[in-house]
Amino acid sequence: MTAPEMVVHEDASTLAGDVASRLLSRIEEAQGRGEVPHIGLTGGSIADAIHREVARRATDSSVDWSRVVIWWGDERFVPASSPDRNAHQARSALLDQLPLSPDNIHEVPAADEVATAEESASAYSATMRSVGAGSFEVLMLGVGPDGHVASLFPGHVALDVTDQIAVAVHDSPKPPPDRVSLTFEAINRAKAVWFLVSGGDKTDAVAAAIDGGDRHEIPARGVRGTSETVWLIDEAAASRIPR
Ligand SMILES: O=C(O)C(O)[C@@H](O)[C@H](O)[C@H](O)COP(=O)(O)O
Q: For the Glucosamine/galactosamine-6-phosphate isomerase domain, which residue ranges apply (predicted)?
């Protein structure tokens, strides 16, 4: 377990630019070592800004996009064509602009592809096992004002699921109510975990997560990358952090 680092940017747009540049460098370095990096994407508004920024800078990088594998930390259990899907958002802002191999994009099965969120979670887990996606090079996670990460919400039963890679989530306080999320066990196998946080409504969650304590109250407390854990946040979200 690594001690979390904190990187504070002036605003959401400089934050998005820095995360994009870190992501491209990290992928280039992994490919330079002969590896095929697996990247975990997140949903949410700052993620969308970051995806656009990565797309804008992608052609200037030396990343070989045919050797990058894409996953999601969580997904909303809605039909495949729904704009509410995290995958839909990431495809339109980023993935559709890149020469990725379609076989290397692993979406969480949608509500018109499988019958239940449970089935979706188990199919997604099976794909991760079959591809041997043990450890993401980078897993990006947005953080909610209640301290949730992926679709692991405070006090939710999914927080205690330890024997699965992905879990079905119902009654999510953030709509839509049905979701699929990686478990803490799967999240914490990532080499780098990057929390992406922007905005004044996140100050309490960020301060509480950094303070430590029970992950049932603030799920972000339960997350650590094996090589690094970095809070990439803006001034508005950092206003209660002693610096
Ligand atoms: O499906 C989702 O919505 C998520 O993956 C969720 O965990 C999100 O990342 C956070 O709620 C932060 O979202 P914002 O950046 O929009 O606040």
A: 11-231
